[in-house]
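Rotation project, supervised by the postdoc (A.L.). Task for the rotation student: set up a whole-complex structure prediction and record inputs and outputs verbatim in this book. Inputs entered:
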Amino acid sequence: MKKFPIYFVLLILAVFACVNPIKDFVQVDAQSFLDIEADLNDQPGGSVVKLNMSSKSLQSGVMAPVAKAGVSVTDDQGVKVLFSETTNGNYTCPKDFKGVAGRSYQLNIQTKEGKVYQSSFEKMQDVPDIQQVVSQFEIKDNFGKQDQRRAGFNILVDFQDSPNEVNYYQWNWKHYEKITYCAFCDGGNYDFVKNQCNYNPPSGHLYRYVCDGNCWDISFNDDISIFSDTYVNGQRVVGKQVARAPYDDKTPYYFELEQRSITKTAYTFFLSLANVIQNSGTFFDIPAETRFSLNIKSTSNPDEKILGVFNVYSVKKRIFYIDRTKGVPSNEFPLYKIIPGETFTCDFPCKSTVSCFEGPTRTKIAPVGWVQ
Amino acid sequence: MPVSKKSILSLTFVLLFLTAYPLAAQDFVVPAFKGKVIDSNTGMPIDGASVVIDFKKSGTLTNKEGEFQVFIPNGEYVFKISHVGYKPYRGRVSIAGKDREMTISMEDITKQLEEVIVSSVSTRKDIQTPSLGVSILSIKGIKRLPTMMGEVDIMRSLQTLPGVSSVGEGANGLNIRGGNVDQNLIFIDNTPIFNPTHMFGLFSVFASDAIRELELYKGGVPARFGGRTASVLDIKMTEPNLEKFKMQGGIGLVSNRVMAEIPVIKEKLSVLVAGRASFNDFLFKWFAPDNIKSTRANFFDLATKVFYRPDKKNTFSFSSYFSRDYYRVDSLFSLENVIAKQTSFDYGHTNFALSWNHYFNTKTSLDVVGVVSDYKSKTSSVDTVNAIDLNNKVSYKNLKASIDYQPNEAHKINVGLSAVRYDISPGRLNEGVVSRIATVLLPDEQSWELAVHADDEFKVNKDFTIQYGLRYAQFLSIGPTAIRKYAEGQPPSDASVIGVENVAKGSVVKSYGGLEPRLTMKYSLSESSSLKFGYNRMQQFLQLLSNNTTPLPTARWTTANEYIKPQISDFLSLGYFKTYNENVWETSLEAYYRESKNILDYVSGSNLQLNPNIETQIIEGKGRAYGIELMLAKKKGELTGWVSYTFARSLQQTIGDFPQLQQINNGNWFPSNYDKPHNLNMVMNIQPSKHHSFSLTFAYNTGRPFSSPSGLYEVAGKKYPVYTSRNNDRISDYHRLDFSWTIYNPSMKDKRWEGSWVFTIYNLYGRQNAYSVFFKPYYQGVRPYELSVFASPFVSLTYNFKFL
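Outputs recorded:
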């Protein structure tokens, strides 16, 4: 048995055991490998390939991008699609390209030094709809009263599994939260040219800058959530927990949930990641290992170890709001987030608002289905 | 006898008080304190014993007649008489104007019965026997050692011996001389123990009250034992008293115990019943946060023995042993890919053994034993739509007979036969259960392990003894079964299946067999020292499938088959033993080297859960273990104990038949999870009077290995460690000091009911010893964390009673 109720072991040990960070840790080995993060999906223009050299350090994960490589995908009918480099090491498919369920794809990469990498053919599986989403309020008492992880809403999904083959699923989510303040500067100086706070010695006085328009912070799932239908093939899968929303307010909570149908190789890959990060630190850990070259191999040097996976999947999305007043006992109150600092104000023509800059964790474009 | 009945502490206090007042000689005649010191057994006077009054304020020696005389002023004094080879005598004397006389008898400790915790057979029976690497532990001694949470624990006590370790506190099993936990053959009255712990590794399964003694064979395993490659732990239950009713028990923090010996027909038939039951739930209720409060964790063991001696030539005994654990926990997962809210675990042994001993004459006796044993585990969740009910079972039946024959002084011969039947039900999920979760029934495994053995201890001459034996074991895996056939030149996998061969019921699927030579030799260098050599080969047909740091109690056992070869291990050892001062001190040096083949490892990302084709998940490798064990023990007297140092290594290499795809750690040797090179153990027991005993144990060892990453990579914006080699770093070193104080019969009255209190502090200085090291995301990278199991001192108090 691989996955054990870690939670339980932690409970038993909660009384006696403790977990401490190691302060004087010395890294015994340092190596770097090519890391290929290749996603191919059924979303138009949504397929991306990222090429990096992995970091030798454990503290700062700065990856060196592998630029100017030739990246393409070939399907089982021999149709080849070229990816173009958007930023250093990031390669994107043409805007109108999307993968088709039932078809198989192969990834080809040639670096500027002439090294050639090729994946095995991976078949895109069709993904069923999310039939129902349920939220359930739950208290986890192993966390303290002031811990955000204590009270929350479990998000459970139901869907119909396909009876024909072994299916593998993955869930990812995005949460958008509308924000009022776009910058927090110690000492209060925002540089509107560089668009960042001026460096000031810590003054203990924090100023916050109001956004100059609509702005949303985006957060993502931290955990890997995967599932295989080994024991429920062809059944309606009920009550699969895929996320948890915090109880930090009573306002509706915006949620964008993605259900993916992934390949067996991708499932194996994500399971190994989960075992290393999520399922470690128990009595019953399994040996920590990294799965190299799962479905991508170097044709020029077959012994080269390659990180990452060619992940071919189809997606169904569901956008919804969680009612954070439902099912909550009357004696449970939200653990409101405190926004630190003092709002920066000054008279015209002095500027006191900061723009909302687009990025992976921030946007000024209202998410689909946003209700004011 | 004017023996001080106060504790040594109060004695010390009185002494300090007295010495604070200088007692000057006055004008009147100083009275004399006269005495005669004799040997308590022989009554002979002891010459040259030293007599010390009030810690050397004045002192003298006894003369040839054992007499002494000291002049001391009026007052109350403490005196101590000591002599080499005798237990020191402490007493109090009050001088009031006239002479005082007394006779003091001293106990010869060289003739004292050993009550030590452990002894190597070499000195206990006789340094001159050929056994090597064998330790005997007396339960009486074990009970004096400091315990964890007040539970007398055999598995923990064994870890104070050189060559015995585990992956960490709370580990489920022992690693003996670099062997895996499933390589130990554990017997309790001839019945096998498949899982030696309760509560996932926290406590041993054995109810200590029912146990008389334990023999641990770390090497030099006699030919009558077989089936496991590293060691044998043979636990003997007490034979109930045929004459007198006796009862004993205890109340502790974790469990309550009771044991009774009940004579039914005087001198013929008697019964022993011993039980232990936990009431942990209250621990959760009192100390645990709210949601652990709903956790249920309970265990019990029950041992019974019926002993019948119809006449002087025959004895029969029927032993039974039950153990059970039950937990109910809230958890999101119990099995991978199963949705469950709350899960229960339930497992335990049901063992029975019937044995018959017949004495033909003083030279010949016969032993026949029949054993039936079951180890079952169940994982269940009663969740309405996703209910699960998973059952595993190992069923073991054994019939064995052996004859002891001693034709003359020079030979001790033992020959025997044994047949073991294994029926393993490796996993039955949701059999007859209505649930959305599928029914998965793994096929049962049947097999036989047949063995014959002969062994002779031959005393060649006064100095040289050789014990040579041979065991032949034949293993047969039996149908019905279906064997998958895989394409040649490819590792077994779902992709390389080319067909299935069905084997009919009762047909032999696969058989393995081999000779297991056993040899130990002793050469006496003198009356008090000897040199010994041992070699043995062992085969193991039953193995535990687990790639966890320590196996789960629900882990699956499997026997050798078409694809799983039996483990074979060759073991060599050499020892030097010497005793001093008529066996009061003992030193030993043992060195060993062991090589094993066909030990199991697992493919990357292996899936062992309910897998019908386990051959696709395993790789066979090699193991190598070696070490040197040094021990100095004081076995008699007021202070007993030992210090041992061990240097030990345990290494593995897994290449597999298809190195490109299977090899682990690039095919290089790597340290096993329990490789701890330096080990130091100290055990000290001081018994200054009949009413007190103090024990201290100290343990130090090198931290065990773990895999340390060599960098980071990114997946979906998150950082993950990159692991390139197995067990390439070590967790911090382990050390711990425990203390216990036992007060026997605090009322000090001789009554049939005798109570005692044991006060224990486990991990006295609260060292946060690491169990494991793991990595979690932290800012831009990952950060190492360590998990400590018993991270603070743990104080407990236990009350024990005896009714004699």
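Student's summary: The domain at 34-124 of chain A is CATH 2.60.40 (Immunoglobulin-like).
Supervisor addendum: The CA atoms of residues 36 and 87 of chain A lie 15 Å apart.
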